[in-house]
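Researcher: Next entry: Chaperone BCS1-B (Hyphodiscus hymeniophilus).
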Amino acid sequence: MRQNNAFSSLLTNVLPSDSANSSSPTGTPQISPTALLETFIPGYGPIHRLILSTLNIDITVVVSLVTVIWLSARIFRSGWAVIWSLLSSYFMAEISVSSTDEIHSHLIAFLAHQYKVKPARRLMAETPSKSAWELDSEDTETPETKVDSEGNIKWLNFSNQEAKSQPRFTPAIGSHNFWHRGTYFQLRRKEVAMFDDLGGGSAAFKDKEVLTLSCFGRSTEPIKTLIQHAKAHFHLGHNAKTIIKRPAAKDMRRFGGRGSWVKIAERPCRPMKTVVLDEDRKMEVLADINEYLNPATARWYANRGIPYRRGYLFYGPPGTGKTSLTFALAGVFGLDIHVVSLLEPTLTEEELGMLFTNLPARCIVLLEDIDTAGLVRNNEIEEEDETEKGRRGKGKSGKDNHGGDEGLNVANLTKALKRANEQSEEEKKKGISLSGLLNIIDGVASHEGRVLVMTTNRPEKLDEALIRPGRVDHQVAFGNATQTQIKELFVRMYTNDLPRTKFLKAISTPLGSVANGKLAVIREKEDLPTPPVTPTAVEHTNGHASAPTTNGSPPALDGHPKVNGALVIGEKDNGEVGEDELKTIARDFSVKVPNDMFSPAEIQGFLLKRKKDPRKALQEVGGWVEGMVEVKRKGTKLVRIQ
Ligand SMILES: Nc1ncnc2c1ncn2[C@@H]1O[C@H](COP(=O)(O)OP(=O)(O)OP(=O)(O)O)[C@@H](O)[C@H]1O
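Model: Predicted structure:
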């Protein structure tokens, strides 16, 4: 109570006298705290009087104190906001990143990682989508198929998959501060509404996010370093993966920039050794691309006035490895694959041109099944139009004969309008013409630095303009499996897996360059074919040297994953078959399959069904071959033995 009195007198000094009518010693009327509170807090007077009369407590002191604290906090916050804005304007550097750029996702992933350990009050929870590859971790064991007590098979069940995946926490929308490697950063995450014209008269507001990073000082270097760390962190997690992108949805493409391409998949790099193809042919493509991608080559091209572009045509029957080789090449050179389907109905020539200009400096552009893309020469279109006009002309004159003067009556006008509409619809559907594509591939404004890969099953159907040198610089023929390739496919199928980490390391660790004066290909461990021209030893980055093969076509069993120099051939997954026996079975198997009759995809399909039992594959291959020969002879698509 004494304390209360002391406080009251203190407050009375600040807001003197309890009486509304009291006067200062000089005679100036003074306003009491209660009167002041009554003025600013509606209803305070009656409440104050009620509590005073019933409980005999004067709440003026407490309410005044709370008011003073609240006011001080407001004043302090406003003052601090002014000081902070002055500080940020004059003493802080900042970099903004839009969500349409991939750096945004790198930064968010990096911050999510940081905020795993950092205590924070405002976070945003997200469910990260993971691919089947990402769900596989070191401790994932191949689950045994279980049988319950009644003898029923317990099939795997993934219905609670989503529930199991851990949420990811990122900084919420708003301002955050954090320290990174001794530097203080401020992060502002905000959403901006963009007015998006969707075309056809419709429009909508879309949310875009902007991240702004700032730090003290006039240099943006610390932020750039932070972004580098975020990128490095991202690529660490995506090491040995091939990213596959496709054109973004139509309404996103219109903004251009890197946002015109979206990632659709990410998968472990395909080791080059898993593509069964003549080693010389593989080596030629690798050397050619390696030479082309060399940074000095761009200058070489520029000095000679040659456009810095390279195109490849992979042709051959279905399932012979055209796409597989493209993926393996992307893995070797660490390039993303940009897949374009020319059959996409919404893709126009201008958009395709814009997509090509928004490609990264180095990447692979994959145009699959180019023969089915329905590309026609413009003169063919013109011919078609002429025929159509002729048809309509005839119809019209026929009518004239019967009906005399046609005149501009309403019915005719309506028909003419309808025809015009039909025509423009047809025009729209025509999509990409051959001349349009040729322009995009090597027109004046065409992107330089990319590797263009076109695949086809029917090269004879391609227009020669499309594959003339400059557009296609290197052609690779793919064919059905030869005896050696069948053997190779077989051994690969029954070779035991490396543990996950060793597998990732094996496909991502470059061994150094093959310095033979002619070629400097970055080799993957045990992966790339040995260059045919090297009688010298290959220097590895670890200082060891390995003897290369000199015959240019390594035997089928070469290049398998090796641990401590030993070939990893199964004792577990392949039905307890040892290395020597596997080689013998592979040879016998290859003898039973006719040379050059089945595609690697067909043989792989047969083996996959017996993937744990090489002996069974050998036993059943005779029947399968008979059945397949019959299928091919009759031209039916239904197989008896799969
Ligand atoms: N030469 C090969 N070496 C290893 N695997 C192959 C080979 N050819 C085909 N395969 C396997 O067959 C499947 C289909 O191969 P891929 O898609 O590369 O064939 P493609 O020639 O591109 O076929 P398409 O012309 O139908 O697109 C893949 O699973 C791949 O692993």
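Model: Note for the record: The pocket of adenosine-5'-triphosphate is lined by residues 274-277, 318-324, 455, 457, 478, 600-601, 604 (CB under 6 Å).
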